[in-house]
Amino acid sequence: MDLGARARDWSEIQERMLVPLYETVYERLEVGPASRLLGLGCGSGLALLIAASRGAAVTGVDDASPQRLALARERLLPSTAGTRARAATRLVDGRPGDAAEADAPPYTVVTAFEPIGCLAGDSEGLGELLASAVPLCERGAPVVLAGWGPPERCATTSVLRVATKLSDPLRGTSGWRPALRDDLEEVAHRAGLKPDGSGRVACPFGYADVDNAVRGLLSTGLFDAAISATDQVQVDKELAEALHPHQRRDGTVWMPNVFRYLIARVP
Fold this sequence. Notes:
Helix content: 25-40%
Shape: globular
Organism: Streptomyces plumbiresistens
Largest sheet: 7 strands, mixed
Order of helices and strands: HHEHEHHEEHEHHEEHHHEE
Strand content: 15-25%
Protein name: Methyltransferase type 11
Number of domains: 1
CATH superfamily: Vaccinia Virus protein VP39
Low-confidence stretches: 80-85
InterPro entries: SAM-dependent_MTases_sf
CATH architecture: 3-Layer(aba) Sandwich
């Protein structure tokens, strides 16, 4: 597996699918020049870039993918000159505690935009990550969690089932599972946060063709267990077959989806 190519597929193909989620959350929370935003699992940084374009000072932390974080640096740091907020951009290869700065003002917004509620156990560790971010925030600061919406509202559900079909439970691999109604609330409670509102956002997945869709979906990591249990060729083949019902006459692939977000507050 070429992790560099996988990260670039994420940043160039897949990440933009969640832009409606980012923009909806920022609009609701009035993210702007007065905001100090901490992005957990910031990946290749598109959500941070959008927040910075609204005038926010942004810090991103990620210890899961050095390749994605390298792309975030390409995306954000060379363009920081000229505005106060972008000059304050920081990207940290690590966890929230590694982003602490002596005498720095507290963060006013925290985001964890990587959607949960799709893989068995994908929320494990997130509660701990959120709890470690709480001491860096002002009291009452909103913390945003994101997850997949109801399976019946997500056309991509039928494609994601390939991950479950090809995963091997006997080897300890875990595939896709349907999102549960209280996934986000359970994580917030474990982190000691107080839920304070939620919403749903339409985030359709659109691709130039089936090959583009396969590359984008593989970049999410949701099919890694299936690849480990079988092989790349098998997963590519079955994923392409699952995508054909969503291919339009012009060759493009279109799958309407709904994502859910939860706003919780730092006590």
